[in-house]
Design a protein that fits this description.
alpha+beta; four-stranded mixed sheet
């Protein structure tokens, strides 16, 4: 249950999505390059989950959702209050706003204004092993055999990528206790930079701290 990157949006547990393309894109990320891609179709009895466990449901990209996601990204254990969390994903339509807000380039009011018009692409994060054992049923599992180019909408925004590079380089310098010039050289010579430069890898969606330690 503790597999995966640290500090994801709804806790470090078991994620489900109703969008098959989302599952495939996650399976194809560079961190999974040496692992078999096996997206599965599962059936969740969510009514039983809601009646037997404390569940948080976010209906919109609102202030409560934004505060929750930011708390999780900063390492808070707020997600541990719930057996499961249902809410919107940080997909392509939300990513730019979240990056700008995280970097302090827009305030909360501006972020919420941008998010208000968006319809959430829902995911469910299960935090309790008992829920998986009692309420989740495996229906089908297939290996990924066809890797296609991502749609143009998934390509990262060049300006935001430069901002991300700058943050990662500063964090890298601080972590390794080296100067900015050395951190610049190390980053631009790294395999991480080569991978993040290829949009189909979707590595640009990962957090700054993950990129430093990848």
């Amino acid at each position: 249950m503790l597999a995966g990157r640290p500090n994801p949006d709804s806790g470090r547990r078991f994620y489900l999505t109703a969008v098959p393309e989302k599952a495939v894109s996650l399976a194809l990320r560079p961190m999974n390059a040496r692992k078999p891609g096996l997206p599965s179709t599962r059936e969740l009895d969510f009514e039983t989950v809601k009646s037997g466990w404390r569940v948080k449901v976010f209906e919109a990209y609102d202030e409560e959702w934004l505060d929750f996601v930011m708390a999780c990204r900063r390492g808070s254990s707020v997600w541990e209050r719930y057996g499961a969390v249902q809410g919107g994903t940080v997909d392509d339509s939300v990513f730019v706003t979240m990056e700008l807000y995280t970097a302090g380039l827009i305030d909360k009011d501006e972020a919420l204004t941008r998010l208000a018009s968006l319809k959430p692409s829902v995911q469910i994060c299960i935090h309790e092993q008992e829920i998986i054992e009692r309420c989740l049923r495996l229906k089908e599992m297939n290996a990924i055999s066809d890797v296609s180019e991502p749609p143009e909408s998934q390509a990262p925004n060049p300006m935001l990528m430069q901002m991300k590079y700058s943050r990662v380089i500063r964090l890298l310098a601080k972590t390794l206790q080296i100067g900015i010039p050395d951190a610049l050289d190390l980053f631009y010579r790294s395999e991480t930079y080569r991978n993040i430069s290829e949009p189909r890898n979707l590595l640009h969606n990962m957090g700054d701290l993950y990129l430093v330690f990848s």
